[in-house]
Amino acid sequence: MEPLVNRVANSGLITINLEDFFPTEEVVVFDLKDYLFMELILKEKDFRAALKEHDWSKYENKNLVVYCSTDAIIPVWAYMLVTAYAEPFATQIFQGDTENFYKVHFNEALSKIDASSYDQKRIVIKGCSDKPVPPSAYVELTRKLRPFAQSIMYGEPCSTVPIFKRPRVKKA
């Protein structure tokens, strides 16, 4: 009887899990709607007073996403004022929704990858994440790795979808 061989472990595949680039700090939302008169109108005096009374310490070591969920016209200075109050506490402050926060976060994290270190490597970009990894992160990682990788696949090492394969150079 022959010993069992783990062909996946011996395949030379490098697995990249985009969940490893997920923000380590909690992401919390600050919705300006809650500070508007009738959820539509920003009254400066009331807004400033409410922000002054707000407990900003609850954003300590968290990523703060600032946006307005209603179709109100919000002056730019309102976002700036929230930032001024939150900055001493929040790890990062982002204006927009959580979906865009994750896109920007992953773009920044992936920009730090040295893609040349994957030169001529066979790569599997792990799929089926438990966290909300945006499709744009898969696009950006593929874009960065393609000039270097021998091949790029999506999924799990035991079951992959081929994405890119460098043509073999014919020897004379």
Would you mind describing this structure in some detail?
It is a single chain. The chain has 172 residues and is α/β, with parallel strands linked by helices. It has two domains: 13-23 and 114-165, no CATH class; 27-90, no CATH class. The chain is built from four helices and seven strands. It has helices spanning 44-53, 76-86, 98-111, 135-145; strands spanning 13-16, 27-31, 63-67, 92-95, 122-126, 151-156, 159-165. The protein has a four-stranded mixed β-sheet, with helices on one face. It has a three-stranded parallel β-sheet with strand order 2-3-4, covered by helices on one side. The relative contact order is 0.17. Residues 5-10 have low confidence and may be disordered.
Topology:
Layout: E1 13-16, E2 27-31, H1 44-53, E3 63-67, H2 76-86, E4 92-95, H3 98-111, E5 122-126, H4 135-145, E6 151-156, E7 159-165
Parallel strand pairs: 1-5, 2-3, 3-4, 5-6
Antiparallel strand pairs: 6-7
Helix pairs in contact: 1-2, 3-4
